Amino acid sequence: MNDLIFAENRFGLGPRSGQSPGRSDGRGWAEAQVGQRLAGLPGIPTRADAAAALLAYREERQNARQGQAAMQPAAMPTGGTMTITPAAEAKAPRPHELQMARREQRELYLRLVDARIGAALTTEQPFLERLAHFWANHFAVGATKATTIGYAGLLEMEAIRPHLTGRFADMLMAVERHPAMLLYLDQAQSVGPNSVAGQRAGQRGRDVGLNENLAREILELHTLGVRTGYAQADVTEFARALTGWTIAGLGRGRAIDGAEGDFTFAAMLHEPGSRTILGKRYGEGGEEQGRAVLMDLAVHPATARHVATKLARHFAADDPPPAMVTRLEQAFLKSGGDLPTVYRALLASPEAWDAASPKFRNPWEWSVASLRALGVERSPGQRAVGMLQELGMPVWRPTSPAGFDDVAASWAAPDALMRRVEAAQRMAGAVSGLDARVVAPRVLGARLTPATATAISRAESPATGLALMLVSPEFLRR
User: Fold this and answer.
1) pTM here?
2) According to the model, what pLDDT value does residue 208 have?
3) Model confidence at 381, in pLDDT bands (50, 70, 90)?
4) Would you give the DSSP letter of residue 190?
5) Taking the alpha carbons of 198, 202, 207, 209 in that order, is the dihedral positive or negative?
6) Residue 134 C-beta-side C-alpha neighbours within 13 Å
7) Cα dist. 145→53, 106, 226, 252, 397 in Å?
8) Fewer beta carbons within 10 Å, N or C terminal of the chain?
């Protein structure tokens, strides 16, 4: 099947109800986007905004702790001692200034979510938008910590979208140097044990040291994949190579030169010496040592296999078709990780166009497709954020660096479907002037079954008809 409506659902974000049917060449529609660059989003916060908000929050938190410490002696009972437990501390009222600082960070997060949803609803490049969402989940960071809530969305905006139709190596480098990733995986706190800073800290009895989180996740999640031949020694050596990659004004790099909140290399944190990783020796070279390792990982055969498998799973089937994986893997290897070449191989794969093997939409995909089908062109703001939270997929807030699952079993449980029914009723009830009998053929095309068409035609109200369409088996899949 190669019609436009099928392509809009499988490779895009779902048809918009107000669109004209247009041409029927779905593959041509998708391929035309591969040669483009994804348009930037206007008016979004900057990393300078995120850094300022994080520093303000840290300052207010420090003030609050000092205030609590100052109050503690007066609260001690006479003739005994009183211990403030973590639970009691958590219940202590937070100063207004601290709450305001936290709110400012959350506002940055909400503005970025709003921009992402707005782009998804109105984009003229739905295939590229979907790919941006795919890579953001591949390089997942969570807006789940005070250090990352203002930064998480910026990783997608600054490191992924500009490199979407370039080389995988460039995207990888931009991601691993981005403040969001360095904060999320604690790289900004890593110190080489034998570095200048490490030795000074040891002499003062301070507990600082090597952090392996970023190195481990790069190998396991971002490039090679799990169980692909690397050992713990490779992780540790890679972590040593990455020491010195930090953020000016934050983390261990607070006193290091550079634009506040930007990536910087701090030589005083870097572990001296050469490194041997995956059997290859990397000479001493400061920042270049980590870069050289990353560049080799970016074109490693295991990376090609890992990326090909995830793309095939996302666009074709939960169990990736082996022939398709091999095709994408070869495209990656022969092109040196040129992403448009890989995307064209994906679009040329017959497995990706198999209508008999639909993918179950995850909550983000289903919510965006629903709003587009209902003709919504502006982000519903906080309502959309709340809905995605209820559906189990809050934007940029996965529970682990592995990102959100990409298989039906994670999203199709009965209670999850019940929440979609409730959300569909709310969305359908908020629009007017739409007739599901007209909209359904436009957004589902040949996949609209007689059973769903009949159910819609017998709905007791226009809103009920639209809700039935949104939770129909055809619409729940793409």
Assistant:
1) 0.93
2) 79
3) confident
4) -
5) positive
6) 22
7) 13, 11, 26, 17, 10
8) N
